[in-house]
Amino acid sequence: MILANPIGLWALLGIPAILLIHFLQRESKRVPASTLFLLEHLDRESVKGRRFDRLRNSVPLWLQLLGVILLAWLLAEPRWTSARSVQRVVLVLDDSASMEAFRDEFAEVLRRELPPLASLVGTTEYTAIESSTSGATLYRGTSAGELIEALADWRPSSGSHSPELALRVGRGLAGAEGVLVFATDYPGDPLPFGALRLAVGSPLDNVGFAGLRIEREDDRTVWRATLRNYADKAQSRSWFLATGGRRTEPRTADLEPGATITLQGEFPEGADRASLVLEPDRFTRDDRLFLVNPSPKSLLVSRTGSPTVEAVVAGLIGSLENAAQSKPDETPDLWFATYNPLSPAELPATAIVFLNQELVPPRFLSGPIVAANHPLVAELDWQGLIARSTPSIPMHEDDLVLLWQGERPLVLLREAADRRQLVLNFDILHSNAPRLPAFVVLVHRFAAQVRAGKIAGEVRNLELRQPLALAHATTTESPPLELVEETGSTTIPLDRARQLRAPGDPGFFRVTQDGVLLLDATANFADTREADFSKAGSISELGTLPNAIRERQTTADPIWFVWALLFAAALILAWHLLGKTPKPEAVAGHGSRAAG
After folding, report:
1. CATH number of the domain that 282 lies in?
2. Would 579 be classed as within a structural domain?
3. pLDDT at 554 over 70
4. How high is the pLDDT of residue 177?
5. Alpha carbon of residue 102 to chain centroid
6. What's the rounded Cα separation, in Å, for the pair 315 and 294?
7. What backbone torsions phi and psi does residue 408 show, to the nearest 5 degrees?
8. Please, which residues have CB within 8 angstroms of residue 454's CB and are 6 or more apart in sequence?
9. For residues 15 and 364, what is the distance between their CA atoms, to the nearest angstrom?
10. Pair (26, 75) in one structural domain
11. How many domains does the structure of the chain reveal?
């Protein structure tokens, strides 16, 4: 049993008040009368005036005390609970990186808000899930204390996202009668699915790194880091560059309100890693920037075919990053080949194929140029292409046409288990294609796909939780991938390799397979929306929740009306007895005895 309104018990103070009244007696008065039988019957009164006297046992006294007890019972609103009653509370935790700045405040709010939700039911089942697409379950149990302890290891690191999907899942877990709470650091609009908002944020003056770019300039590597002040007042921060066991002298960066500046320097000579360290503030995730000198996978290329296209091929190879001519004992990753319709020959398995037309065709191709909906030609402008009419390269049944002009297929993509070929089915030398940006971009995109499919190591600077698509051995005997961080390593089964992401915490990491390096990289915070705390705030919509739980999970006194009737009857009967006058014959008899 619980009392919905414990304040009603203050009505019990009427008991000592009634007893005090009954202890007090009033002084009797002398009234001269000629005849004693004319005196009305009087109750015995104190002859010494008002004072504490013995408590007289009377029916009105007990009726009044009963009335006070019944009134206190009705005002306290007793309700009955069952030890088998279950209340489900689902917490959807905003997994955005900004929540990391308020983890301590969040724990304190939970210690204050959760106990009232569990005091009215037999068992409270708690479930805590993240709001990101992964929807990881952080806790499931019946102890609020264990829930708070489990959240001590929670590290929110996602970017800005909608919690709607997680709230939908949370409502399914809580049920129609359960409690669904969205814990975040920003007040906002009403939430769907009957969720209640619990915001624990506050505005912070944050300064942090917001971007990184590393470029080759002549024979040196230059890094440029963007530093941003998210506060509405000027800020000053010191920073330095660290590499290995060395560090530069601290420098000071002064930023106006909302200003962005660029820090610049050379990548340390002979070092493959470095880090920019900023004077820390409340939000530490963007106070350090990890750097590696990026290097894509090496691309071994070779050429075969007519010397007439050598100039075009040499220019394309020179524009590819980290591409080199393969040696005689090496297997090329990509061939630049030519095809002569008058002298057909077998093409390499992975190649960019040029149509070899030695004679200058007299006519030009005509008709509208239409591109397919394909990543290789997406958003490329081919309308300026001028090509001559030549014999066509024979098409295969599985060829995918990427570009048409009239009825002539200009660009074909051949993909199969044993080949991947980009066929340029027009005369490159006698066209303006080498001067079109679309042509160069198409070649680069195809080479990038070939490079991505190669199992080899690369060096990259990435963002937190950025998806990783790494080529790796996929046979049944192949070992799993290994994600190695400074804090430890994680084994990634091959069936989950497509779900691989960069770590959620900033730092250096590597991905290997059976000791072979696939990726050497950094993970850095880069979501400027999560670093801006100007609109953070606190709000709790849980204030009326205990009353709602009480109504749903407890049962009101089923015979309250009986107590109300007894209370009314006690008052009426007490009033009747106190106001009752003696019978006339009793008064006359009393007077005669007094006279005698």
Report:
1. 2.60.40.3230
2. yes
3. no
4. 82
5. 13
6. 23
7. -95, 120
8. 297, 299, 333, 471
9. 112
10. yes
11. 5
